[in-house]
Design goal:
The protein is α/β, with parallel strands linked by helices. The protein is built from nine helices and eleven strands. The chain is 34% helix and 18% strand. A seven-stranded parallel β-sheet has the order 3-2-1-4-5-6-9, with helices on both faces. A two-stranded parallel sheet has the order 7-11. 36% of the residues are buried. The model has no long low-confidence stretch (mean pLDDT 95).
């Protein structure tokens, strides 16, 4: 069985490569630039934005784990237009595993809307597939909201809720789906705890012995309300074991 991992230089792609290293699978990886330390993995160039290298990437593979994504630049082209072109070349693929995000149909954020559109493209295609949504990654929440303090303050929309999950646990879950075969829309994969952003900031301060304080505020609008209401969480799917606290502790040891 031969597996292709797209987006092999990203956070999820890199975590997938660690999970697959030493496995019995024949692994092929693809991205715009060649990642370092790929060992015995075969790398090929491809670019969803321009439709380059797609045929070569999927040649002679049975299963694809699609970790390629572009949340900031050219997201519509990569997530929807490029993805549609990619799907059109998959007559021989036995199982396409699509990582997605919890709550994307309820959160009015452009990138999330595009991910939801991509899910529909996959559902309406003839490609055997599994769609599995996850809550936000620990590193995503920290990097976006808690990476830097301003005037000794973490300034956060404190009523935002997150159920963050460790990227390596999600990668392990995705590789475990390879043997199970196509499931359509699979159950979500959520982190072990639901916390407000203020609580997460205070936890980081405590673990790192920082002198920073937290200044929290509320934001108006539908996007803010969706995060405050926890539309990005799934309390019934607390699958991950590595907490945000453990993630932070591991960063300093």
């Amino acid at each position: 069985m031969r597996i292709l991992v797209t987006g092999s230089t990203g956070q999820l792609g890199s975590a997938l490569l660690k999970q697959l290293k030493g496995s019995d699978y024949k692994v092929k990886i693809t991205s715009r630039r060649k990642p370092e330390g790929i060992g015995d993995f075969e790398w090929v160039y491809s670019d969803l934005l321009y439709g380059e290298g797609l045929e070569e990437a999927i040649k002679d593979v049975d299963i694809i784990i699609h970790a390629a994504t572009s949340p900031i630049k050219h997201s519509k082209m990569v997530e929807v237009s490029g993805f549609k072109e990619f799907l059109s070349k998959m007559e021989h693929i036995k199982h396409f595993i699509y990582p997605s995000i919890v709550g994307i149909e309820e959160i009015p954020f452009k990138y999330y809307k595009e991910k939801f559109e991509a899910e529909d493209l996959l559902k309406n295609s003839s490609v055997p597939h599994t769609i599995v949504r996850a809550t936000q990654f620990h590193h995503f929440v920290e990097n976006i909201f808690l990476s830097k303090s301003l005037f000794k303050r973490y300034i956060v929309p404190g009523n935002f809720k997150f159920q963050s999950v460790d990227v390596s646990e999600y990668a392990n879950h995705l590789t475990g789906l390879v043997e199970k075969g196509p499931q359509g829309r699979a159950e979500d994969f959520g982190g072990p705890d639901i916390m407000t952003l203020r609580e997460m900031a205070e936890m980081k301060i405590n673990i790192n012995n920082e002198t920073n304080k937290v200044l929290s505020f509320s934001l108006p609008g539908r996007l803010s309300k969706s995060f405050s209401d926890g539309k990005n969480t799934n309390p019934s799917r607390k699958m991950g074991k590595i907490t945000f606290e453990k993630y932070l502790s591991n960063r300093i040891h």
